[in-house]
């Protein structure tokens, strides 16, 4: 081949920060500090449904179908997300009004994945994500991973555990486990993509390595170091570089969602 707005050839700092948070697990405050060199952008289109009538829609259609096909073989009674909505400025969702600054996200209330695709090219041109196709597919697979967690009840269990937690640090550990599991699920998809699609969707040489480098770069510890701040494990919400690499790779090497129990040691 895992509030601000995006338009034209620029990317807002808030957009970059929240894209980083919702897609790759980057803390918005940290990412805003890192991304202050980038300029803000203007407005863009309203939300629309993705269709195979353009390149982005075709990519989402093919990869999204493949992800669903993989999970239909891995999870008994699997029900795909209700839809994958492509939007660039804003769109109504079951979780409220979704804005471009939120980046790609999954809404459990309407069981839909929402993708702001304007940043895909900017990931490569401004953020150095040379493995663009894999990164795009990883984004989608990670968000569907959160849909899996809704179906299995893991998301609800985490919310209840966080409400009962005795401290913010304890609550954050559940958040880390949830995000690492979504990374692992993205790896499970990648491991099975070619078999299920008869080779139509498959990783090429170097794709996994690119994914692991990305996972390393977006660990909570790496981002805190890059921002010049002190590394504070109690504030982690998505996992360290090592953890993100480990769980993405574990999902890929096993190809089995049963290997993705990130909650076992909590």
Question: Can you offer a commentary on this structure?
Answer:
- The protein starts with 5 loop residues before the first strand and ends in a 12-residue tail after the last helix.
- The strands form three sheets. Strands 3-4-8-7 form a four-stranded mixed β-sheet, with helices on one face.
- Helix 3 packs across helix 5, helix 5 crosses helix 7 and helix 8 packs antiparallel against helix 10.
- The chain is built from ten helices and eight strands.
- With 266 residues, the protein is an alpha+beta fold.
Question: Which descriptors would you attach to this protein?
Answer:
single chain; four-stranded mixed β-sheet; alpha+beta; 266 residues; two-stranded antiparallel sheet
Short description:
This protein is 53% helix and 10% strand. It is an alpha+beta fold and 266 residues long.
- Identify low-pLDDT runs: 2-48
Helicity level:
40-55%
| Structural class by secondary-structure content | alpha+beta
Strand composition percent = 5-15%
Tell me the number of strands.
8
Distance from N terminus to C terminus (CA atoms, Å) equals: 35 Å
The largest sheet has its strands arranged as: 3-4-8-7
Mean pLDDT value: 76
Give the count of helical stretches: 10
The general outline is globular
Order of helices and strands: EEHHEHEEEEEHHHHHHH
Quaternary assembly? single chain
Radius of gyration: 17 Å
Main β-sheet, in a few words?
4 strands, mixed
Show the helix and strand layout.
Elements: E1 6-7, E2 10-11, H1 13-24, H2 28-34, E3 48-49, H3 55-74, E4 83-87, E5 90-93, E6 96-99, E7 105-107, E8 112-116, H4 119-127, H5 132-152, H6 154-164, H7 168-197, H8 207-217, H9 220-226, H10 241-254
Parallel strand pairs: 4-8
Antiparallel strand pairs: 1-2, 3-4, 5-6, 7-8
